[in-house]
Design a protein that fits this description.
alpha+beta; 27% helix; disordered N terminus; cell adhesion molecule binding; signal
């Protein structure tokens, strides 16, 4: 499922409008035992980080400059995201309000992956708000009522271990169990049929690639 890339500045100006009628939320806590935490996310490989690493050093993608210009500092900036675990960092990013709602129980109260995402080392392919806006109403309704379906889609965007831009190309097993394929290089990376807007964004425990489409797990 694809959504046409737009100027990142325009996306940022519209990000306050919640596509699902949901407000962006803080992801510092989970919603309790009733929430589904999805499949176990086992750490496989990690990309070591040190306090001296520049969070912007390995960024790739045609939208990185616009992102840095629009959010030059603060918790949602490239430098700010590096300080927090991935679910918290995503909640501070103005491009990821709908993804934040989906993983934190706002879209479906039985799906809360915050603690799981914050608890290991991952590569996260993060659909921006425009990708969620492209979903039709029937799909949104289905996701609101089907915790297993939503969990499957969300965990298909997560790969155990951190993959830097120079190592992300290839096929990777996701937490959901299906394979995701990353092709291209540099500013022309694709994840399945979605384009990377800005990738290599580091958080305290993950490497994030902002993408312009929602990845759908393969059907058997």
């Amino acid at each position: 499922m694809r959504v046409k890339k737009r100027n990142l500045m325009a996306v940022l100006s519209l990000s306050a409008v919640a596509t699902f009628g949901l407000a962006a939320c803080s992801t510092g806590t989970s919603s309790g035992d009733a929430a589904s935490e999805g499949p176990s996310m086992t750490e496989e490989t990690t990309m070591p980080r040190t306090d001296t690493m520049d969070p912007a050093a390995n960024l790739v993608g045609p939208g990185c400059a616009d992102y840095a210009e629009a959010v030059p500092d603060g918790d949602g900036s490239v430098a700010g995201m590096a300080e927090d675990p991935v679910a918290v960092a995503a909640s501070n990013n103005p491009l990821l309000t709908q993804l934040t709602a989906a993983v934190s129980g706002q879209l479906n109260p039985d799906v809360d992956l915050v603690d799981t995402l914050n608890g290991g080392e991952f590569t996260v392919f993060a659909p921006v708000d425009d990708a969620f806006a492209a979903l039709d109403a029937a799909t949104v309704t289905a996701l609101q009522g089907d915790a297993d379906l939503l969990t499957s889609i969300l965990t298909y965007h997560v790969v155990p271990g951190q993959l830097a831009p120079d190592a992300v190309a290839g096929e990777h097993a996701t937490v959901q169990g299906g394979m995701v394929e990353v092709t291209g290089e540099g500013d022309s990376l694709m994840v399945n049929d979605a384009s990377v807007i800005c990738g290599g964004v580091t958080t305290a425990n993950a490497t994030v690639y902002l993408i312009d489409g929602i990845l759908m797990p393969p059907t058997e």
